[in-house]
């Protein structure tokens, strides 16, 4: 009986994503894990050290749970979503298979094309290219020692388009410099109107009146 039960659990795990509720989705979900358990009371499967592939998207988590009734994937521990050149890592993740949306808490977003990083309390994946971040900082520098960073109560980040921040504070070397009610900048590799990344430079001269010291520049294209 114990062997039969193990076989049934294994077959259920293999057939889980072929249920009618998920068969209508355009992409096939696949899970690889070091192990899993079934909770018969809730009909949920829990996976250890799991990697989920769903179309061009990959989800990784130390502990991953799938709820077929709500069509939700939740992951805890060190979690990560990778999609093209975008990586979102955090401590907790909820992914809605039907809506293809995700919420990642205590999150960091990396846009490898732009070399940018968002650090936020909460990041929502609205679509493949659109993200919303709450209580967020944005920089292209090393986050451990950023020369400059922008913080905002909310940042909307759309790849190959624009990023915008509400109630924005620009810090240079950790010192608050400018406040903007709303700030927008291009996130595209092509030319687009908006503020460019801030720059800082040291302008020195042996003539005191021309010794300008450190200067900050915020270019607008």
- Contiguous helical run count: 2
Share of helical residues: under 10%
Form type = elongated
Which stretches are poorly predicted, pLDDT < 50 over at least 5 residues? 1-26
Taking the sheet with the most strands, its summary is: 12 strands, antiparallel
What's the average pLDDT?
Answer: 79
Instruction: Give, in order, the helices and strands.
Output: HHEEEEEEEEEEEEEE
Structural class: mainly beta
Strand-residue fraction? over 45%
Radius of gyration over C-alpha positions, nearest whole angstrom: 23 Å
What does this molecule look like?
It is a single chain. The protein has two helices and 14 strands, in the order H-H-E-E-E-E-E-E-E-E-E-E-E-E-E-E. With 221 residues, the chain is mainly beta.
Topology (SSEs and partners):
Blueprint: H1 2-15, H2 20-23, E1 29-32, E2 35-39, E3 44-54, E4 57-67, E5 72-83, E6 86-96, E7 101-111, E8 116-125, E9 130-139, E10 148-158, E11 162-172, E12 175-186, E13 199-203, E14 213-217
Keywords for this entry:
single chain; mainly beta; twelve-stranded antiparallel β-sheet; two-stranded antiparallel ribbon; 58% strand
Give me a quick take on this structure.
The chain has 221 residues and is mainly beta.
